[in-house]
Amino acid sequence: xxxxxxxxxxxxxxxxxxxxxxxxxxxxxxxxxxxxxxxxxxxxxxxxxxxxxxxxxxxxxxxxxxxxxxxxxxxxxxxxxxxxxxxxxxxxxxxxxxxxxxxxxxxxxxxxxxxxxxxxxxxxxxxxxxxxxxxxxxxxxxxxxxxxxxxxxxxxxxxxxxxxxxxxxxxxxxxxxxxxxxxxxxxxxxxxxxxxxxxxxxxxxxxxxxxxxxxxxxxxxxxxxx
Length: 226
Fold this sequence. Notes:
7 helices, 35% helix, single chain, 6-stranded mixed β-sheet, ATP binding, alpha/beta, nucleotide-binding, globular
């Protein structure tokens, strides 16, 4: 692994089902993302993008291969260690947003800072900054059910970036955004990549996202084509 690599997966293989019903979601997949690099993972639906991201983030275990974040091997790590890594080092955007329904938009964004026990003043400042950065300043007090899908998606992006992670893993983070808003959100991600040296791995069908990438990695039928 290069000393600059912040995300690395090597030989990842993942099966689902058993016997005759077993399918291969990912087959011997390898890739790396360096600090300060913005990489887009592109492929059709069902190609293995989400599976690769969840394995890279330590949210699932592969049948073979391994994943690293920095110098930490996330494959085989205990849940406590994996959760600590996601809390302290990583931002993750789930395709389904995974917002807490009884919290407001601002409270959802604040969660990573609370988990890191940041002070109240820092939390207020960072949350306000990120809510404004994704264009939701007028919606901070609304709960997810009161927001559109695109607004919920922007809350998820703000939450993933609020603690200035060293790594961002995001699954279709612009899927419900119009082209102008998508461009704004990707500019925000790139700002963190360039300013903070964050490594970003984003799965996306969106040409707006791919056009801004440092590198596009194709995946088809569970196989990565570097």
